[in-house]
Amino acid sequence: MTDNKAITETGWNFDNSYARLPETFYTKLNPTPVRSPKLIIANSPLATSLGLNVQALINNDNVAVFAGNRIPEGASPLAQAYAGHQFGYFNMLGDGRAILLGEQITPQGERFDIQLKGSGITPYSRRGDGRAALGPMLREYIISEAMHALGIPTTRSLAVVTTGQPIQRETEQPGAILTRVAASHIRVGTFQYAAQFGKLEELKALADYTLQRHYPEVETNESRYLDFLREVIRRQASLIAKWQLVGFIHGVMNTDNMALSGETIDYGPCAFMDAYDPATVFSSIDTHGRYAYGNQPRIAAWNLARFAETLLPLLHDDEERAIKLAEDALGNFAEVYQRNWLEGMRGKLGIFNEEPQDESLVNDLLGMMQKQGADYTNTFRGLTFGTPENNPLYGSGEFVQWYELWQARLTRQQETKESSHQLMRSSNPSVIPRNHRVEEALEAATIRDDYGVMERLVDVLRNPFAHIPEQLEYCALPEHSNRPYRTYCGT
Question: Where are the active-site residues found (predicted)?
Fold first, then answer.
């Protein structure tokens, strides 16, 4: 695999600081070449922000990079080792179908992982084929771009290529590789791996590296490992609150799917909620609702407790003292999460100041929405634009009473009615990746080789707060079905 002028002109500027960690954390390995790669979609805005030349990026030589057929200069490919609790059970895991090429250093000096997902078998494949199907890779592209546009920290998708090689899942499907961009791929599960299988000095090396990469503001503190824990808790509390505020359901909140950067990672059986119900589950494998919408804050706290356990040897030499420090830090999660969530809910209702009754005002609305099966996104959109008559809540005495209380609440703040309206416009999206729209796009792409449906959807999702007429058709609800919507992990 040789480099060439076309690849250099693209603007790749690789390093791989992760490869300077102890070798227990990875296996150096090149992607497995594919037969006939074809570029399906490239993310021009993301490419530009990374310092890449978009036109050079899409020529055949650079498409070979996205396929793993060529390795750019400076890249040092590897598969990462990690462990994790999957549905509550601990397992040795690792990159079973992904290769980290390295880290792109942007013109601004920022560092982003460039990972190929679906790039072949690794030592961590656990009897898997190391490949990915086109549908799930396009789903990740769509959802991750929607999350970014919604202002939610997330990994992003730079490109998707087909491989020319079919793979077998429930049926034969076209193979694909997604190029994922992340602040890093360090997970709670990475620390669980270090604590379970590594030496203390290796755990410390991983912690110091993560501090330097993601939390440099505390890396020189005497209490840096405790501050590290506190900062991870703070970021996760903020992230999960943002998920809840838009009705996003991750689907597989295993500890290996919690990134220490605070980004949303690993879009498998994820989806957005239509009718409001905290018990909503979309994942086909979550048969007991462990990762239901309403459970996500609790599961995040559980995952963070597993992370805190890995840091105990670094928090204090005395185990009891270390446990007490960790418990005190973890005890703040619920308060920080609730504060973030309630602040976001105030924004969705146009409220700037704080009153003790605000939480009950929000919960009363959510309770009515649940009883009536009201659409989550469209309910808040209707309140934003004064069109609650489009909602099943409208007309009930309970809603009329609530509406009057809400309007009275808005008068008890200094900001104008127009300011409240603008706050609601910027807090309540018109469009989300509706499940039926995502499926429509994936079906067109995978069955009819028509990518126009997906491209139009992605364009609409990139401006969720525009509130323009062109978005109206994407606000429409799906036709009623007696069958629950289910998503699949794609492995």
Answer: 256 (proton acceptor)
214: confidence class by pLDDT, cuts 50, 70, 90: very high
Which of 428, 236, 254 is closest to 337 using CA atoms? 236
pLDDT level of residue 479 (50, 70, 90 thresholds):
confident
If we measure between CA atoms, which residue out of 364, 246, 259 comes closest to residue 304? Answer: 259
* pLDDT > 50? residue 2: no
Does the annotation place 117 within a ligand binding site? yes
459 tagged catalytic: no
- Segment 378-403 shows an average pLDDT of 87
Q: Is 409 annotated as a binding residue?
A: no
Q: What average pLDDT is seen over the chain?
A: 94
| SS3 annotation, the chain | CCCCHHHHHHCCCEECHHHHCCHHHEEECCCCCCCCCEEEEECHHHHHHCCCCHHHHCCHHHHHHHHCCCCCCCCCCEEECCEEEECCEEEECCCCCEEEEEEEECCCCCEEEEEEECECCCCCCCCCCCEEEHHHHHHHHHHHHHHHHCCCCECEEEEEEEEEEEEECCCEEEEEEEEEEECCCCEHHHHHHHHHHCCHHHHHHHHHHHHHHHCCCCCCCCCHHHHHHHHHHHHHHHHHHHHHHHCEECCCCCHHHCECCCCECCCCCCEECCECCCCCCCECCCCCCCCCHHHHHHHHHHHHHHHHHHHHHHHCCCHHHHHHHHHHHHCCHHHHHHHHHHHHHHHHCCCCCCCCCHHHHHHHHHHHHHHHCCEHHHHHHHHHCCCHHHCCCCCCHHHHHHHHHHHHHHHCCCCCHHHHHHHHHHHCCCCCCCHHHHHHHHHHHHHHCCCHHHHHHHHHHCCCCCCCHHHHHHCCCCCCCCCCCCECCCC
**Number of CB atoms found within 10 A of residue 61's CB:** 17
139 is in an annotated binding site: no
Is 96 annotated to bind ligand?
yes
Per the annotation, does 452 bind a ligand? no
Q: Is the pLDDT of residue 3 over 60?
A: no
- Sign of the C-alpha dihedral, residues 116, 120, 124, 128? positive
Does the pTM exceed 0.90? yes
Q: Where are the domains of the chain?
A: 17-182, 188-264+292-346
**16 marked as binding residue:** no
Judge whether 3 is annotated as a binding position: no
Q: Catalytic one among 95, 256, 274, 375? A: 256
Give the residue-averaged pLDDT of 352-370: 97
